[in-house]
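Supplementary Note 3. Input sequence used for the single-chain structure prediction.
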Amino acid sequence: MDMPYFGFYFDPTYILVLIGVAVCFIASAQVKTTYKKYEHVISRSGYTADQVAYMILRNAGITDVSIHHIPGDLTDNYNPREHTLNLSDKVYGSRSIAAIGVAAHECGHAIQHARHYVPLTVRSAIIPAANIGSSFAWPLVLIGLIIPRLNFCMTIGILLFSLVVILQLVTLPVEFNASRRAIQIIRDSGYLAPDELKGAKSVLKAAAMTYVAAMVSVSLQLLRLVILRNSRDDN
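The predicted structure, written as discrete structure tokens, is reproduced below.
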């Protein structure tokens, strides 16, 4: 007998969701473990992360970006609309090589913005559409699952969710490029000694893997939706 609510309660494709959750959990645990390993390793330069960020921005000719201390655990970010570089509790004021690496990474985003780095521009353009897709995709998919005659809603939902996947895909080169810029800058400027640079690289590599994990997770969710849509057609 056909299952009219296939996918609404339990179905075998939930394994794809669980795999995505596991991948994200492992990546998140890895970045926290790596950061913790190097957050107590103090840079011999004596500079704090916010001081390094200030010098990187000024050396790059960027004078319209302000640096702020924000609450949270590794909530660091660069806001292109407000031209602010926001450093979290563990990073702002810290002299650790982990904090300096993270601050330099966020400076990498500011430099991308100032240099009109194409993937960043594309990502910024996609974000509004991806937010809409994220908000409406699942309600439409559920409507299509519950009401067979509105099966077209599933197709629309899948297309909208595809925007989320595209956003994650475009995010990857943006993040990896920011890390490459950060490592090159702190190496060339001497903010970290060669042996200290290894620790900063490890932190940024672990952080980059969280974006890879996010990409894997949303891709698996999209695959699940396509499988559910095809199963509904077969039924």
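The chain has six helices and three strands. The chain has one domain: 14-234.
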